[in-house]
User: Fold this.
Amino acid sequence: MARLADYFVLVAFGPHPRGSGEGQGQILQRFPEKDWEDNPFPQGIELFCQPSGWQLCPERSPPTFFVAVLTDINSERHYCACLTFWEPAEPTQEAASAEDAADGEEELEDGGRMRLSPSAPAPASQLFAPKTLVLVSRLDHTEVFRNSLGLIYTVHVEGLDVSLESVIGNLLTCTIPLAGGSQRTISLGAGDRQVIQTPLTDSLPVSCCSVALLFRQLGITNVLCLFCAALTEHKILFLSRSYQRLADACRGLLALLFPLRYSFTYVPILPAQLLEVLSTPTPFVIGVHAAFQAETQELLDVIIADLDGGTVTVPECVHIPPLPEPLQSQTHSVLSTVLDPELELADLAFPPPTVPASSLKMQDKELRAVFLRLFAQLLQGYRWCLHIVRIHPEPVIRFHKAAFLGQRGLVEDDFLMKVLEGMAFAGFVSERGVPYRATDLFDELVAHEVARMRADESHPQRVLRHVKELAEQLYKNENPYPAVAMHKVQRPAEASHLRRAPRPFPRLDEGTVQWIVDQAMAKMQGAPPAVRAERRSTVPSGPPMTAILERSSGLHANSARRLEVVRNCISYVFEGKMLEAKKLLPAVLRALKGRAARRCLTQELHLHVQQNRAVLDHQQFDFVVRMMNCCLQDCTSADEHGIAAALLPLVTAFCRKLSPGVTQFAYSCVQEHVVWSTPQFWEAMFYGDVQTHVRALYLEPPEDRPPTQQVGEALAQEEPPSALDVASEQRRLWPTLSRAKQQELVQKEESTVFSQAIHYASRMSYLLLPLDASKSRLLRERAGLGDPESASNSLVTNSMAGSVAESYDTESGFEDAETSDVAGAVVRFINRFVDKVCTESGVTSDHLKGLHVMVPDIVQMHIETLEAVHRESRRLPPIQKPKLLRPRLLPGEECVLDGLRVYLLPDGREEGAGGSAGGPALLPAEGAVFLTTYRVIFTGMPTDPLVGEQVVVRAFPVAALTKEKRISVQTHVDQFLQDGLQLRACTFQLLRMAFDEEVGSEGAELFRKQLHRLRYPPDIKGTFAFASGATHTPGRPGRAAKDKGPSLRTLSRNLMKNAKRTIGRQHITRKKYSPPSWEHRGQPPAEDQEDEIAVSEEAEPSTLTPSAGLKPADRLTLSSLVERACCRDYQRLGLGTLGSSLSRAKSEPFRVSPVNRMYAICRSYPGLLIVPQSVQDNALQRVSRCYRQNRFPVVCWRSGRSKAVLLRSGGLHGKGVVGLFKAQNAPSPGQSQADSSSLEQEKYLQAVVSAMPRYADASGRNTLSGFSSAHLGSHAPRARVTTLSNPMAASASRWTAPRGKWGSIRVSGRSGGPGVGVDVGSRLAGRDVLGPPQPNGAPPDSGFLRPQRAALYIIGDKAQLKGVRPDPLQQWELVPIEVFEARQVKASFKKLLKACVPGCPAAEPGPASYLRSLEDSEWLTQIHKLLQVSVLVVELLDSGSSVLVSLEDGWDITTQVVSLVQLLSDPFYRTLEGFRLLVEKEWLSFGHRFSHRGAHMLAGQSSGVVPIFLQFLDCVHQVHLQFPMEFEFSQFYLKFLSYHHASRRFRTFLLDSDYERIELGLLYEEKGERRGQQACRSVWEHVDRLSKKTPVFYNYMYAPEDAEVLRPYSNVSNLKVWDFYTEETLAEGPPYDWELARGPPEPPEEERPDSSAPQSRRRVVWPCYDSRPRAQPDAISRLLEELQRLETELGRPPERWKDTWDRVKAAQRLEGRPDGRGTPGSLLASTVPHHRRSLGVYLQEGPAGSTLSLSLDSDQSGGSSASSSRQAARRSTSALYSQFQTAESENRSYEGTLYKKGAFMKPWKARWFVLDKTKHQLRYYDHRVDTECKGVIDLAEVEAVAPGAPTMGAPKTVGEKAFFDVKTTRRVYNFCAQDAASAQQWVDRIQGCLSDA
Assistant:
């Protein structure tokens, strides 16, 4: 029996002692006044009565009731039922409150009751103070409390004739039974009657309707979310305006957690004064009034459930693991069915009559039943994982988490893992693990209903039926007697609280109440204690557990075959058939990745153990250990229930004899695994074994098993009766035993545990002490001193050492010190284990002390044993290692480090490892790594014996190394490996290798140091290109080289001295350049300055005079400069020549200037530069100052057709803060000087504009008059900037923007409106200005330039042009674009390397992760931007405007863009010779910093590799793919250059500029020093030599069209990943060192089979191993090889392949011309569809329907002669396509070529027109064989066909009668036929069609 109420308290409002804004609660009276002995009075009740604070109210509120919960220090919950009512405030209370209000501290409360506000003082009569009746109880009977307090309030308000003291006395003395389903009627003596029913089972929670209400308020998903959060120990906060709702929600949530009990902070209603509790670090479930929502906002890790709003907010930093599938979805669907029963019937055509919905109370129980089922499914079989460690005197039970998770198949499940580790589950185990106790509904469910629940899973109706059955039981538990609910309790009348109460609540007489209580106590003492007998029984265990989700059988369908292989292999090993076993071993090792095969292995090995021992020979021992290691290598620390547990007895059983008296056990070879260093593993194993032995103690003798059979718990549990059954029986008998017997049993159990602890101490020392005790590495991990993840957990034994640990350099030198360190760490680890398990298992302290003494002795004895084993194992003969294969070396390449034995491990590319792509597992391979002066080379053989005798070669140039890092090795190959090294190269090779133990850490370190020395030589002389073939060592400068060509060396040295002297003088004579200050920037130049290009100081004669004044040495230099690539190209382009007298023809617009021949103006420019004719040399010095690195604009190419020129320069100098201060503080001469300099720059650009033919004759455009008068004002015109941002915003801010970085450029010309044309720049960004961009990356619209184009477009960095105001002008136009920087290229390249050559296998195999990482690298995005900018420049040049590319420093992106532009515009650069010239000119002469970007020297090590040149070659590769017939060179040529620009094999790509090459004497030494057998120093020579031997660099599809301008698609979707990044040839290494590449080996004569047998020439070609182009060459290469072979057989000297090829092409041309006329076509004549040759035409839907928009297109057909020849070519070649008819051929009534005028301001274009009578339309195509229709004119819309007149831009050579117009309802189309007759024919045909219709 228990008291219904412990205390009754009366709490009233009182003023706050510190005078703050609120009052406080005061306990007026409490009964009884003395505390009960068993239950002290809880503190803080006055806070919980008014959780929002005590305040006076301006009006009477109705009484309120809620139940708060207080938890005491013993985790006992006290339920405080509070009934609050309001009484008129007493004057003292009002006064206190008014004072507080005057302080301005009061505010409105959200709850609705008004606090006092100073602005509106309420009259005193209206203030009411709260008073609360509180009932404190340990029982949770909310309704009884509500009725009882209500009765007391009614007695007081209604003035009933009942004494309040007697009612309260009766309440305090009322007792009720605790549980057992009894009922009791109580009365408080006021004519009332209440029936109290107690639940049948005390352990089941009572929820009333709280769960159903919670679901109504929050919904299914939110409640499930809160349920998972509570189970995984997160903080949960409920908000509501109702206190009772808060209490109900908290109660409902806890009811759902049954059978687990919530053990953290639980406060359903938290008072405002205690809100800081919310920042506690522990989990909680708390309810807070919604008024304080603002205070909860900054809680970062609290899940907030708003009951009134129905929302649950989970912070970002909180992760709530969901229920494991399929339980999550099943629970969700059952809950939705319970809450909405009509859901299942909603779709029925004939729904049944509606079923009455369950009552709220019943629905509550149904919802709880769903969660009860869920727990039964989650925890099914949990009793099989309980370890009974002790039975007497009290049961000690441990739960084996890992076994439970593993057998349920949920090891990876986050939710269950956290639940099992939580405190609630620990309580569950200690409470429900007891084998002999009272059982309840959950025990029955989890034991007997599991099979039913599994069967019902797919039948919703059966599930619902089961839920309803369970709900009935839960309902019956709460309401055992549903019929008898006869309550009779008086209530106050309606609105009684508004009546003026007769008097305040009276003070009660304490004596009366105390007397009633004492009377009842006296009665109770006399009565016998009512003890309910607890029905205890053995708890049923239920069926053994099964996996929660059956794994799909498809994955392991062949597992039976695999198990058979494992069994066969083991039987071969023990039968001594070693060769058979060796064949099967690789298959076994692969099979052991599956759990079933590992389990099979342990079972098979158990069969071969007799009497705990199995002695093997050396080979058997090796095989067994390898298989054990393979089993263990995938074991995580959580896998202790599985393989490691089964192997533990075996590793101490298998052994081999090393010598008489010395035996080596298997444990010494399998220590390298994480699982042995995990304390949880040892604990689980220990408890499992203890359970087996304790069970054996109590089994009857006939059933007794020898306790030596330590096979773990698995076998123990299968034998009846189980340990739990034994324990239950013993607990039942315990009270009946005598004291002595009890004592004896306790002692037996304790000694059993103690003996097991000793046994485990030795077991642990076996597996933790390394064989070689001097190697301390193991212990660093084992003793928890190291990171277990970094441990290599897969190493395997060898007969030689059987060693376990990687060798560490031990610094101490004292072996004893090391040994004691190892021993000490092991002793500490074992002692920690022993302490923990013995304390938990109740071992006596004496025994524990004894253990602590024994452990060091055990360890020491074992160390001594191991020393002998280690010594003997060293004497074993070593395993035969394969012979090292020596690599082939290049001439001049020397070995630095001879072969170090290593294993080449598989990396992320699975092709080589026989992954999903199939193929042989070439990796891992065993071999050696060689370090030469040029390369790092691995050669070896695959370790998989099934692959065969394949040689694996992987190599890369030392210079290409980008990253080297140490790795921890995880591979199962034959030997013990030491440390690993991963080398990554920028040529997309990766060497991931593990050093053999014979190499040792010293050898590995030496390799690293030598590699580093070769990779980063101190100077350029140390690189392979210089060192190869030289006699001197790389470290010392060679003397021999110096005397070989003394004249030129001397010349270059003198030249450099001269140049340096000149530069020095210039710096002395010239005044320092300082940019103009802000104020003077816009002002005219000083009066005394001339208007012409002039200088304000004396120039140095040597830099300005023509060649008459040149010294002889300078002349020699000049003649050498003329031979450079730049000059040869300038002459080809007609950009000016250097005659003998250096006189220049005035008619030429440009000239070659030798101003930089001493590299005095710009170190990184070539010696000869093309500048405008009108600019004097002395002005260039000052112009150069305005540009970064002095790289002023120079011409690098001129269009042969439009005569527009392409210029390049560095970016303009930015105005940094320092420059700004300098400019402001500079003296006045400096300002005029600076102004002069910026003016020079302006005039220079003007001179460039004037030199262009189309602007030279424009009236007065090229004069510079009026410049000096141009002031800053509204009329001052400025350079036009086409910006990438919003053009309207830019024009709006025109007058307020400050002068920008281009502010010094001032030009004359008229102003245009802001709306003229569309921004050029917007094209670059692909902005949608006039229309959406085309899907292929073409311009968004062809009309992007205004009709009056600028003469010069300046492409600059957007960052430089920020401040410039956009004013359209005619002269030049600024195009700011956003470009990426070198560091972005570097970062992108790093990611590209990792994407294409990942260091480790991807987490998710398959193409998705590769494509994702490729996209993340943004490499293709950068390629896209480069191509986009280049195509824009090509279009501008093609339209006749010149372009200056002025980006960054002028040597990275500028070089990429100008090179691409020339390649796209000029077919010459698409030949082998032309491409070489382009690279020499733009990349080498114009100073791209190859050494800096490739980090060639030690100085550049920190900057890293930035492959700008590789990016350019990738762009060329993209264009090559799109236009395969336009390039003379092949894709291999591009790969060859990509490889060798980074390899440092040739000198071509070394150093940063011509200046540096001259300084080293590189540039001209080739002519003077060329001798006989000299290795190629230049990559171009090497290419020439190779080209003579083999056509590998030649593109057979080369069939160029004259003057073809290429416009490639540039969208990322049109780009392909270059196979240079991904392909690999493991047979011979990279194929780019041609001398080393081998063809397919021919079988020698004597090996060939008999010739009479049919011979097969087939051979297997493996991807990733063989070179496919070499194994299977294209048809033409094969024919050329065959020709050479036949010629050799006939004894004729073989003809060069190029001569043969040219002869064949010539013959083909003659065949193609039977009548001797026609166009020259080649073998592969240009029959490729024309739309891939000229991509300037884009069809676009305009606003008025389908219009054909023509972008700026370089159509060659200016006149009909050109076009007719092209038409003829099309006709002559179209015969080849006759068999490929287009889809619409049957509908072509008439077809032919017509010129068509585009829409407004568009040019004329030739199109192939098809008149289709069937479809009644006129279609047009790009050309005849085009299958893609470019536009349609519907004949239904045609109004008239009439003769037309020629308009502007029409073909010139056509007569006027050849024009006709077609007028439609939309617009008029202008056409032009080839002559008048064909025009008439077209008109007739179209009109015929119209009349037919």
Observations:
- The CA atoms of residues 101 and 116 lie 6 Å apart.
- The longest strand covers residues 77-88.
- The chain has 56 helices and 45 strands.
